[in-house]
Specification:
Elements lengths: L4 E4 L18 E5 L7 H7 L6 E4 L12 E6 L2 H9 L2 E2 L7 E5 L7 E6 L7 E3 L11 E5 L7 H12 L2 E8 L5 E9 L2 H10 L1 E5 L4 E8 L16 E3 L6 E3 L1 H7 L8 E4 L6 E3 L15 H13 L4
Parallel strand pairs: 1-12
Antiparallel strand pairs: 2-4, 2-7, 3-4, 5-6, 6-7, 8-10, 9-11, 9-13, 10-11, 12-13, 14-15, 14-16, 16-17
Length: 301
């Protein structure tokens, strides 16, 4: 699908400076990793900072490693101890550098990109209540996008943004989706109608997907059963139960339902009908985010 509108500009900087009060995800991105390094060698290289686990997106026995991965530490203090021993790039302030060795490469400098927790939520205008009916879900976000950056993009395009937040995993690390709340229905409907937005920055270009933020609510037709299906077509724009969807959409086969998934963090275009069973968002957000970081920074070992 083509993007209906484009935002171009410079996003606000990430909160990457290790301040005394900074809180970090225990998960960090590692780029520029030697192609011949083993998981065991990686664990040993960072063992002095604490127990660590390797997440290597896309690595299998049939394809070569891509040169970037994630490390997951047990404690937040392990991450701050590591950063304290790194060199920092003071030009971009995006990342840190640490030297590791593999069988063929000695003292190879790898890039470490931590995630500061304050980048996951941004309040642009204090509001007594965030209205789910004025909130959009945004999918396919770039790995460098912060909550503040998301708020800037949507406020510039549609106005009225009061809050933005990024969805995170159990390590409080972004998973490539988020939410934006507006203070008026007009801005909300403009964002929903846009559906796809192209974001262009000096460091990356990315098309994101915009949908209504779905609630757990009753069918808007019968008012009796749960309404798990939402029709985003402006002629409907309501929740439906299984029976009412079939009844209401007999003559509207081109309308596709949105449905909350089990985690409630992403939305997928799905249905009980086989011909609707097509995911709207990629199935491996961790791998996608790693690839985006790798492409942006040129981190391929």
């Amino acid at each position: 699908c083509e993007a209906s509108c484009t935002w171009s500009g410079q996003l606000p900087p990430r909160s990457s400076t290790a301040g005394p009060n900074s809180s970090y995800s225990t998960k960090i991105f590692l780029g520029g990793v030697p192609w011949d390094i083993s998981e065991q060698t990686l664990v040993q290289a960072f063992a002095e900072f604490g127990e660590v686990r390797v997440e290597w997106p896309g690595r299998d026995y049939t394809s070569p490693p891509r040169g970037y991965l994630y490390l997951v530490f047990q404690e937040e203090g392990d991450v701050t101890d590591l950063l304290a021993k790194c060199c920092q790039d003071y030009n971009t302030r995006d990342s840190y550098y640490y030297k590791i060795s593999s069988r063929r490469m000695r003292a190879k400098e790898v890039q470490i990109i931590p995630w500061v927790l304050t980048d996951s939520n941004y309040v642009r205008c204090p509001s007594p209540r965030l209205d789910p009916q004025k909130t959009v879900f945004v999918g396919a976000l770039h790995g460098m996008m912060t909550a503040q950056g998301l708020a800037v993009v949507f406020n510039d395009l549609f106005g009225g943004v009061v809050y933005s937040g990024l969805d995170t995993d159990k390590f409080k690390y972004p998973i490539g989706s988020g939410r934006v709340t507006f203070n008026n229905s007009r801005s909300y409907m403009k964002a929903v109608a846009a559906a796809f937005i192209e974001i262009k920055t000096p460091r990356f270009c990315k098309k994101v997907q915009v949908d209504p933020y779905l609630e757990d609510t009753l069918c808007s037709m019968c008012g009796m059963k749960q309404g798990p299906y939402f029709c985003r077509d402006l002629g409907c724009f309501n929740y439906f139960c299984h029976s009412c969807w079939d009844l209401h959409h007999t003559s509207r086969p081109h309308h596709k339902p949105l449905m909350r998934n089990i985690r409630g963090l992403t939305r997928a275009r799905t249905s009980h009908h086989n011909d609707y069973n097509v995911g709207r968002y990629r199935q491996d957000p961790v791998r996608d985010l790693a690839e985006q970081f790798g492409q942006t920074f040129g981190l391929h070992g």
